[in-house]
Amino acid sequence: MPTYCFHLKTGSDETIVDPDGTDLPDDRSAREHAEAIARELMAHREPRTRAWRLDVRDNDGLPCFDLLFARFDDTLSHLTPDLRASLENLCASSASFAEAIHAMKLTLLDIKATIARAEGALCLAAVMARPFDPGRTRSLATARLAVGAHHPQSRPQLRQVRER
What we know:
The protein is an alpha+beta fold. The chain has two domains: 3-98, no CATH class; 100-157, no CATH class. The chain is built from three helices and seven strands, in the order βββααββαββ. Strands 1, 2, 3, 4 and 5 form a five-stranded antiparallel β-sheet that branches. The chain has a two-stranded antiparallel sheet with strand order 6-7. The termini are far apart.
């Protein structure tokens, strides 16, 4: 039986990864399970979660499908089909825009760390107290830059990390 992972993209700088996954018989069952998860997570907070998405992946980490929460928001049932479609498109665009901004922030952090390493200065040591890995997704809200080359007054507070 295939295992499906349901990664939650909240529209901010965060992706909540499903490390274990769920064994389901087929893609249809995975889609039904994803819809149930979306409805449960949206309950009583629909406006805040409409741009959230579930990124469903198979055993190998390959994408199966992406599920936008707005498409399953029953509080929008009173809208005309055209207006509802417009709102769903707006939520999808908003989610894509947030993901693009997040990717750009990660790229900028990677560039700053590369420049710092090239100059022999302190470089980015961690994002959320974990080693920085631009390939992984995590919140940048608590990112700590340790690029002391441009801020000499901050050097005493930072632990120096040099690439060997």
